[in-house]
């Protein structure tokens, strides 16, 4: 279901209303032209039925600075939010876009402006609308949102017994209960966190009769801990395919091996994604296990220090490869950062390299 957020910015009379509509799958490229007067023009390219489509230009294209931000939907990247600044007199002055994987550099100037954010928890942007004035400048910006569709990895193990599915309407986990026995995993149970932060007790999958060894794995969802993979073993000698052992891994820690490492090994994982739900088959034991994945969203921490100088923001990359620090008289004069941008090396410097090179740290 599509949800429309009303345009934020200047609401002056006589402005032209434009609308890219909401019948798109994703946003794939954003073109922004800006000057000290504000955002002069904006244009979006969308994905519609798997094909790229160029949207209309909103505002006026001239000799002002143009900045482009690309979104790779083939790697499950999608646009989650827009942060912007405006004045009532001149409209939108600056914009910054955030995907589930990266954050763009700020586009424009925002001193003395009113801030706004276009975002809905658990949803992605698939279209934009707004106001402009006689083809000159962008005065307001709104967006269309839809639910993010999780990626499903099929259950591994036996396909006999009762089919179960905990669904995908979750933000994460706080606890996993597992009981193992001589014939494999007897049951599994998950304590979920829904998209509104409420705890949701999942059902037991398997049998609680008999005796076995209880295993508990806590996940600190409130501290941004999330589940990234599951590995285990299952009986591949007959169609029962009973799960023999499980091990869970978060972005912070790894659980013990719950059960016996006998049978065929398997792994449930997806690059740059986290687990939000499980499904499978169960009878007297857990027969198979599959998972639902959604892309991981980067966390932006506020800067520390004084507010003097020019504000800068590199956005988010796959990794930091190298840090270079220059200093003179005990003061940091320059910071150099080398990034891994989807296999390509990008270097950014801030400050002046007048001093002596200090400590240089290389991360591989």
Automatic annotation (TrEMBL):
Record keywords: Lectin
Query: What Pfam families does its record include?
Result: Jacalin
Q: Name one GO molecular function term.
A: carbohydrate binding
Instruction: Specify the protein name.
Output: (thale cress) hypothetical protein
SMART domains given in the database record: Jacalin (SM00915)
Q: Where is the Jacalin-type lectin domain?
A: 2-147, 150-295, 298-364
The entry assigns this protein to a family as follows: Belongs to the jacalin lectin family.
Q: Is Glycosyltransferase among this UniProt entry's keywords?
A: no
Q: Which domain of life is it from?
A: Eukaryota
Q: Which residues form the signal peptide?
A: none
Q: Which organism is it from?
A: Arabidopsis thaliana (Mouse-ear cress)
**InterPro entries given for it?**
Jacalin-like_lectin_dom (IPR001229), Jacalin-like_lectin_dom_plant (IPR033734), Jacalin-like_lectin_dom_sf (IPR036404)
